[in-house]
Structures are given as structure tokens and as C-alpha cells.
Amino acid sequence: MRTGTVIGLAVTVIVALAAVVGIVAARAYATRPVVESVSPGPDQVVNGATPIRVVLRSPEKVSRYTIAIDGRDVTATATRTVNGFEVPVPDLPDGAHTAVIDLEADDLIGEPSSYRWSFTTDVTAPPLQLAASKGWSEEAEVAGVTEPGASVLIDWGDGTATTTADQAGRFTLAPSLDEGETQVRVFAADAAGNESATRRTLRIDRERPRIRVGGVEDWTDSDRPTIYAFVDDASPTRIIARVNGQEAKTAPLSIGYTIETSRLPQGTNVISLEVTDAMGRTSTRTREFGVDSTEKLTNDLTLGPGARGDDVARLTRRLKVERIWKGKPSWTYDKRVEAAVRAYQRKAGLPEDGIARPALLSRTGGRIVVIKSKFVLNLWLDGKLAKQYPIAHGMPAYPTPTGSYVVTEMLENPTWTPPNSPWAAGLEPVPPGGSNPLGTRWIGTSAPLIGIHGTPQSWSIGTQASHGCVRMLISDVEELYEKVEVGMVVEFKD
Q: Per the residue annotation, which of 97, 393, 453, 467 is the catalytic one?
């Protein structure tokens, strides 16, 4: 064989062997164990509860390894996994830390592999401080301060809202809430996953109060009705109630208020309500209603415009006796009745408001008219002659006066006390009994020393026999006594 041929063949073999060795070496290098990824990753912030996880290429080829954190060997705590290692993070202070993994493998390369990276631990929960509550408002808002960059979440059961605190740690969230009180939970979480939480009650009221009046219809047969104010509002409310301009007592209910009324006048009454909610918004409501609780006219009633029925008719009959009303009685308290009431009030010196109050009714409710020439006492009630009684009156030397007076006192079984008059000089008081000159009843008048009383001297009825008083039969004065009131007018006529 030629020398050149031998040399060429040798070169070929050498080249082929070198190629094989290169291929083998390349494959060994490509499959040598190295760190592909770590968790926590480089520069990541963790809360210390998450273990270190290392993912290797060709983990099965690792023959020996060491793991250190901040120079502290933690290899003994490591656990091999299918993909690499898992190392529980030791108790580390907050701050930056460095981890190093050294790997060795039995392969053609024979060189160790090392991986170094840094991460930060943070086990402190972020501060979370909410701004002072605004109380009731139209829209919900939660503002506060936490760790800069922390994520903030509000949870109210029906929804959530999130934001991120700015560089100063400030945040503001405006959850979309229904009206009323809603309790929300507020969470702040930092980059390491540490979390702080608190609660806040938000109070939302977007509309002014809505009011409905109940308890009375257009007309009521009670002069002391309980009226209800039903209030619809998200926030607490307060109420001012007035009935006919006078403030009325109120009591809260779960859905509003009760308004207590005093005895109301017959006729049209007005209730006005002013309801203010916690936002300071006020709603008002006015309602007119009529009271017609009785047809009987008593002197403790009050009648006003809008009243109707027999009690109004009786009032006009009374005013007719007073020469104020003309024509037939009216069963409706209209403008004409109101004008007549004003006219009587003006005549009697009463406050002129056109409302028939007890003072007016007492004065017009009845009238005693003594006609001396006929020796009779006429009792007028509700504008009608109720009864006529026979009487005796003053003798010529002591005449019964003429004029208009009022009843000032009423006594049962009175004691007769001698008056300061010449004819009574030397006489002693007489206690109640059959010989008492006043009989069993005394109706005193504003005429000095003049009254209406019974007498045991029934034979004197129909004569001028007294010292100025009006005498009546015992049974008659007792009957009259039950129909008379203090304040009733007494007229003495010739």
C-alpha cells in the first residue's frame, strides 16, 4: 500500500473519531443538569410561607448538590421532586436574601453547575386605616391608607370593587350599593400576599322622604283620631306634626309615626307634616279632613267651618236668640255661619276668629229670662224655650233689678247668711233644712245680692214678696238647677 494512501486513511479515521467525540460531548453538554427556573423568582417578594422550588433540566443526572440561603446550608431540608428540589424557607427576617444551588453530575463534562439569585421576604401585613365615616351620604365611598402599591378590595356580598394604592398608599373606592345600611369588608394585600382586613358600615340615602297619611278618611266620626304618618326613607327621620297649626305629639313606629290629637273641633281640620331625613332633606305633606263625631251640641265642643249636622243647626238657633242669626237654621257651617259667629264674638268681646269655641257656646247655650210683670222665669236652651216656671220677685221696697247679668255661683243645700242690709239686721244664719229661706238650691247672679232660689213659702209664688231675689217652688228650682251652668246669661225684664 502506498504511503500516501495510508496517511489519507489515517486522517479520515481521525476526523471521524473527532466527529464522534464532538457529537457525544455536545449531547452530554446539552443534557447536563442545570437550573431552568426557580420560585420565588429573582427579585420576587414572598411572604415566607411559600417554599423554594427549583426546576432542573435532567434532574436524574444530579449526583450531588448543595443549597444555601444567605450562606447558610439548608441542603438537609431539601426534598427531591420529579422536576428538581423543594426547600422550605427558613425563618428569615424581612428583606433581601440570596440563594445558591450547586450541582454536580457524573457525565463526560464533569464540571459543576451553579445558580445564584436573590429574592425578598415580607411577612408583615400591610397597614390598613380607613378614613372617618361620613355617616349617611348619597353615594358610597371608602377611602384610606395602606402600603404603597397594595391591592385593595371591598366585598359586600353582592359584589366587589378593587383598586391599587398609590405611591403614598392612598386609595379610594366607590362601590355601587343599594340604599340603606350595608356592611362591607375591606382587604389590603401587599406584593408578598400578606393581607389585612377590616369592616365598615356604609349608609346610603339618595332620595328625600316620602310621606303618606293614614288613620283618617275625608270624614271621621271621632274627635280624637289617631293619625299615622307612614314614611319611606332609607335613613332615620324626624318629624314635626301640626294639627290646625298647633304642634302635636308624635311617637315613632317601625314604618313611620303616630300623631296624637287632642279633642278636635267639629268641621274641617288640617294636619301638616314636616319630615326630615339624616341627609337634611325635608318633605312636607298637608291633609284636610272633617270631624263629625256628634249631633249633640254641648258647651265643651268646638265647631268650625266645614262642620255639619244638627249641632250646627242648634248653634244658629242660639245665635238667633242673640239676634245675630236671621232666617231658618243652617245645618252646614258655611261662610254665613262663620260671619254670624264673628258678629257674636265682636258683640261679646270674645276673640274674633269665626270659630264657635266653648266660651261662645257657654254664653249662648242657655238663657234665663225673668219677666217680672208676668211672674215667670223662661229657660231658653239651644235657641228654644225649654220650660217656663212661676216665680215671686222683689217687693216694691226691695225690687228685683232690670238688666242683663250672668250666673256666678251654684250651691246645693245652701246656708242662708243674713245680707248686709237694714232689713236683715239682727238675724242669724240659717243652716240647710226645711226652714231655710233659700230652700235647697241657690243660683247666684252677678247682680249684687240677687239670686234665684227655692222657698218654703210656696204661697208667695206669683207675688212681689222677696227682698229682690227670684223665688221658685222647691221642685222647680231643683229641676232648673240641673240645666243651668255658671256663665249662663240671666235677663231681668219688667
A: 453
Residue 18 has a pLDDT of: 46
Identify the DSSP state of 34.
E
The correct CATH number of 210-291 out of 3.30.750.24, 2.60.40.10, 2.30.29.170, 3.90.230.10 is 2.60.40.10
pLDDT of res. 232: 95
- pTM for this model (two decimals): 0.66
* Catalytic annotation, pick one of 97, 393, 467, 469: 469
Question: Residue 245 in contact with residue 318, Cβ under 8 Å?
Answer: no
469 is catalytic: yes
Domain-by-domain residue ranges, the chain? 1-30, 32-121, 128-204, 210-291, 310-356, 365-493
The b-or-e profile of 386-422 (16+ CB within 10 A means b, else e) is eeebebbbbeeebbbbeeebbbeebbeebebeeeeee
Strands 113-121 and 95-105 come out as antiparallel
Average pLDDT, the chain: 89
CB 70 within 8 A of CB 91: no
Angle at which helix 358-365 crosses helix 335-348, to 10 degrees, equals 80
Write the pLDDT tens digit of every residue in 296-312: 988 889 999 999 999 99
Residue 144: pLDDT above 50?
A: yes
In this predicted structure, the answer to whether residue 26 has a pLDDT above a threshold of 70 is: no
Q: How far apart are CA 64 and CA 72, in angstroms?
A: 17
Q: pLDDT band for position 9 (50/70/90)?
A: low
Residue 150 has pLDDT above 70, yes or no: yes
Cβ atoms of residues 122 and 93 within 8 Å: no
CB-based contact 54:35 (threshold 8 Å): yes
**Active-site residue flag, 453:** yes
Asked if domains 32-121 and 210-291 share a fold, the reply is yes
